[in-house]
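quick one, 429 residues, struct below
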Amino acid sequence: MKICMIGSGYVGLVSGACFSDLGNNVICADINKDKINKLNKGVIPIYEPGLEEIVKRSIKQKRLSFSSNISNSIVKSDIIFICVGTPTKNNKADLKYVFQVVNKIKNNLNKYKIIVTKSTVPVTTGDKIEQILKTKKNKNKFDVLSNPEFLREGEAIRDFQFPDRIVIGTDSKKANKLMKKLYSPLIKKGSHYLNTSRRAAELIKYASNAFLATKITYINEIANLCERSNIDVQDVAKGMGLDERIGSRFLRAGPAYGGSCFPKDTRALVTTARDFKTDLTIVNSVINSNKNRYKLLNSRIKKIMNNNFKKKKITFLGVTFKAGTDDMRESSALDIIPYIVKQGGIINYYEPTGPKPEFKNIKITYCPDIKTACKNSDLIIIHTEWNEFKQLNFKKLSKKGKFKVFDMRNLYSPAEMRKDKINYFSIGR
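---
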């Protein structure tokens, strides 16, 4: 099939590359000419394991191309995916980029096309898109449907190739048949294909993210109780996760959730609910609890350091919101590191995906490797769960007589750390 992904960011690029890998002809279009030029040279603007190999292979096989000519890309394609950003503005999803694309589509409907919103959009957005496109000239030339994405950063290729479910929101039999054909290679491998109403598909994405955010926040609050009652939160999480109604995924205590989806989607969902004059008190509580999570971690670090940060060398291992990505959006490190610096601490950090410009306004040092970052550290903080952080010899790394380790991801055993005489702290244990 001839596909156009409008918006070559995380969702558009990953989805476009994977669709081309399934044998489709895909154009990834974007108004950012510099990004398109780099992509045409095989330069990938995001860190995502496995993506570069697929992009280069598909370009070589002439199934994947990149263009800054949006209009021409629309004319050439049968299925148009809208994959532009929907950031929150005043806690509401900002749809200006979506509607800019829709107006481009409106002027370039040369034949019947399926218009798919893959961007995360509030309920009724599809209705508004349909109204914009519905002109006498465009009569019977389109169907608008919702196909939410469920890609996890760091696991996006696998999530596309082996999805838990494929959700298609449309009442059009014609559009549904074509979308089922498009996804047939994945359906044959066992993925569930769910055809719902368009509004239901739009809400499924928000409801799913809000529920997962709730699980993270819930186990973090349970971890707070565990720390005060001398209980290991991992035992609690394991016992809960064995209940099939609950499941073990996302029951891992640690920093606040962050990234490009959970924070903005929970806020936008609450605002949408208010627009419909209903109150999502649980989701609201999740947002507030998560917002305060970094304050609890700051207090914990302060206690670990005996309220003495002055000229103390503190190392962060990982600063992104989670492992497997270079995404800094709403990472806890953005709140914790400035707090430590204000208290007089000296920050070194090592991040596998490289230095981060988000810290340009405060004085901290990026180190090219773990050894350099940890040398002579008073406190080593494991902030993200990269595999290379899971088997470290802390004594050799720090080379300091008295140093401490704060494991925010519970990667190590407290018993083993005690055995090695390491002053070790973790979450909820």
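The chain has a mean pLDDT of 96.
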